[in-house]
Queue: 4 jobs
Job 1
Amino acid sequence: MDKTSEPKIRGLKSLRLLMEPGEYKYCACGRSKNNPFCDGSHLEATDIKPIPVMIKFKHEVKWCDCRKSKKLPFCDHSHRELPGYQPK
Ligand code: FES
């Protein structure tokens, strides 16, 4: 089976999480069961690699959940341009 380069859209809003300082691997393929962090699922279906992220201090992070952000792994509100998006 050919691997895809297309990330999977998980959600049409940012994923806000209070993060502790540390190193993380953002799931750029959208297939992880530990969204938004890589669990190795990309190895099976895609040629997409996780994005390493260093969080330097405790704060709320707005992770991209649609994988269309131009500022991956962070939300830039690109989800608002996708079909199915509904404003609050
Ligand atoms: S599981 Fe998605 S990048 Fe690793």
Job 2
Amino acid sequence: MDNPIAPLIPEQESSQQSPDTASPEAVLKITEVFYSLQGEGLTAGLPTAFVRLTGCPLRCSYCDTAYAFSGGKPLTVAQIIAQVSDFKTPHVTVTGGEPLAQPDCLQLLKVLCDQGFQVSLETSGERDIAPVDPRVIRVMDLKTPSSGESQRNRLENIMHLSSADQVKFVIGAREDYLWALKMIDEHSLDQRCHLLFSPVFGQIDPAEMAAWMLTDHVTARLQLQLHKSLWGDEPGR
Ligand code: SF4
């Protein structure tokens, strides 16, 4: 949605609802709660509290958070809120793994919003985003062919995206790039939400991808993973 004069497609009505009452006693499996700079998306560079939920049903070829597939520690929503509050930042990102694989993630998101945090959710796009609290900014992947998981894209999610949301394409090859252009065109994604093109770290030359984007006048934002430039693949960063 980088063209400010482009008309926006209104968010569709959802048949599902976010939980009316959120329980601070709901328990989630958590890999880590940490404080860092947001490395991706429209708020890149902002000090942010991260809540990384354990578990993911996908196995993307480029995954850099395999340590979140299993293990984790049970924490109540109230305990998570207490830890997040200690970081003294209004920005909270709930990530994974695939956070929506734990149904009580919806409770966590609602309580965080109720507490006044500015909340974003990073999701693979494999789960239904319709019940997510509408105050949450959804940063949703559309899995490209080289991820090995593009058949898991839940395309029904597209109709639930709002103009505040972000769709991310992780691009590891020219084939992925062309696939992303096709998806944007077929689903008018540039009129629906913000678009991010993220080159797979160490696999594709970002400068080459930038040249493709300029040649094709792509209405997406090139994003380089700030946290990887600063700290590499260190967990908790
Ligand atoms: S969805 Fe995310 S956490 Fe899950 S395998 Fe893919 S990159 Fe890793």
Job 3
Amino acid sequence: MSLGTTIEWTDATWNPVRGCSKISPGCKNCYAERFAERFRGVPGHPFEQGFDVRLVPEKLPEPLRWKTPRKIFVNSMSDLFHESIPDSYILQIAEVMRKANWHIFQILTKRHDRMAKLLSGPMKAFAAEPHIWWGVSVENRKHGLPRLRKLQKTHIAVRFLSIEPLLENLGEIDLHGISWVIVGGESGPGARPLQPDWVRSIQNQCSRDGVPFFFKQWGGTRKKVSGRNLDGRTFSEFPTLDLDNPLNYPGREIPLNPQPAFVPIAALTPRGAQA
Ligand code: SF4
């Protein structure tokens, strides 16, 4: 586990897999690939094998050792549902997430078909866990919106979207059953530009539909300078539970099986763990 993440919407990263391969336009300037390939061939470095997919079983138990509750981005340097990762290994990762229930786990994929298949079959029980959030990337209408639709059709307690890098105006999007939306522009060399109106459109739709909205960054080649301010505001919203009206929870609009009991971040405390 790494606590040194600069990813604004999480506290830590956990990488029991390293490496991935490109699957859609959103991958073009993949940060993880750029980082990993810098160390290809460096003896003893975690990315000695560059961006080649590699299982890292010694990392599996790390969240169980981390006693303070954290939001943990799973496989920030890979895609959990990459075709090279065996089902049995994904199940081991899921089992760790289920046991370490004082944390929140955030899983993000572009391999939506495989995720849906597993969460509707052998991993059904994990889909209902409110501390495990399952999300898909959306970069444009053609590739991203089918992922969104697949996510909506899968019985999951907490579904989210990472709309990054946003490459075009998505227009009207159906946020039915979505509990959280993150938006961001691309950063680094060759970053593709992000138009403010594209972001405003999504923010307005989230506001209208009561979906928490997190604006991560404008991106560009000078990400720190461009910042994350939208029309004078910083948007850093996360899924929350309306305690007075627990049924007023975006993720419940699509029937879930079993019905989740959503737990707000603030209420999460280590169970059976020493702080
Ligand atoms: S799926 Fe994610 S990690 Fe894999 S190549 Fe694409 S952007 Fe990179």
Job 4
Amino acid sequence: MQQTVSAAIRAAMLECDPQAKVMAARKVARDWRLGRLDFAFDVMMPEQPGRPEAPELLPPGRMPRRRKAGSERGRIALWHALAHIEFVAIDLALDMAGRFGAEMGERFVGDFLSVAADEAMHFALIDRHLKTLGSHYGALPAHAGLWSAAHDTRHDVAARLAVVPMVLEARALDVTPSTLERVLAAGDERGARILERILDDEIRHVRFGANHFVALAKQSGAAVDELWKSLVSRHFRGTVKPPFNDSARLAAGLSRDLYAGVA
Ligand SMILES: [Fe+2]
Ligand SMILES: [Fe+2]
């Protein structure tokens, strides 16, 4: 008998070592694509994914101030923060597929496992870049808040889609152009290429989220923008605010009418 997709996803989520999680996430996505996993959900997703002992996770208010952007330490702090976001994003995508796959179907599982594989690649690229700067993932403290958005929406796939791809990942589309400028201003061509590649992938991730959200809203007879706004106001503690990267958002299937009303 083949392994079930949920068992493979759970095992990848429980990996603590970053390298092992990267390999496991990419393997689940590949095995699913090749038909080596059964579409069956016989195990639960973990409440907390496995993570390494370092970085130390700090509440947002206790994170050290960002250093000056141009300095060596500032550059390392930036790439370390990005590495952490991608590391958590691996588990966010795995959890999406493993937790909601049974009700959402095979296409949904395939979409979010491909996202998990992308996030694993993003993490690996950034971690390698950090090493060329003489650092590595785990060398600095990191933000503890990222997983909580997922945890808070663990009972409702519409809320999860509304908050994770359509708010948090869409936010990454907004901030990447200015990060890219800073990185280029520091003469970091290789870093700029990594960010450009990530931006392309993140547009696709937001689009997957938006497409599945729209399908869910239509099924339930709800208006897409009303449902999204009510879920965001109930489940997202931050604010959706400009500047927006309108062209990237549009490419991802988010119209200005949708998010401008919330801002
Ligand atoms: Fe990513
Ligand atoms: Fe992503």
